[in-house]
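Attaching the record inline, Q. Sequence:
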Amino acid sequence: MDKEIKKVAVITKVNSAEAEGAARRIIGILCSREIETYSIVPFGIDGCVLVSPDELRNLNLDLLMAVGGDGTTLRSFNLIPCETPLFSINVGGHRGILSEATIDSIEESLSAILAKDYVCESHLRIQATIDDNITTRPVLNEIVCARQNLTRTPVFSIQLMNDEISQRMDGIIISTPTGSTGHSLSIGGSVLHEDLECLTLVPIASVNRMPQLVVPIQQINIRCSHDLSLILDGQEVFDIIAGHLIKITRHISDARFVRLRKRGLRQLRKLGF
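Structure, as predicted:
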């Protein structure tokens, strides 16, 4: 990439002394390079401008830095315009699957980025529309449809690719390739390369042992015979009344990650293989 970095915002994991310490190091380096730097309320530090999430969305940023775990990275993508690239540093997180760097490589990573020695990757996102009335925010990892009543096993009707599947099960996960290492993997889903243009449908406790499906990115319609919860990236929940229609489609804009080097199977390395 040849874009010069002039304006950067830093989003920090809340209630993490380790992440706050790393963010202070990052902000100090950026300010020493005379880069216009912003931080999100309530984490302020001398040398940077403190802004609210709403103000952040209106800034013409060259880069956003997420300091924390995968949850911080997912949250950060919802606070910036779609075209803003994001660099994730795993500090205080668990596996940090989405991250590119750790606390031990902060100085080295910043030097590479400021020297324009990096690449940008685009990762597809999805969204849900409920009864043509409510459209959710973009989702990077997965949308989980899960039953609410634990004493009843509902029937899910899934329409895709001019076909329909009806199955009695506890729920279903619709995952992007990026999210294939998340909730989907925890119940036996496959790991998909992040560059693939597809979705996975992973059933949760299917009575008839419905297989996992890998499908092209086309609209998926879901109805459930009982009330369910619609969970977005494990961070936001919608209550859906039985029989209401959920449409899942590709979001118009992809998420953009800053990577220091291109790796073929970076997810496997993150998982410890």
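The longest strand covers residues 7-12. The chain has two domains: 7-123+254-270, 126-250.

More tomorrow.
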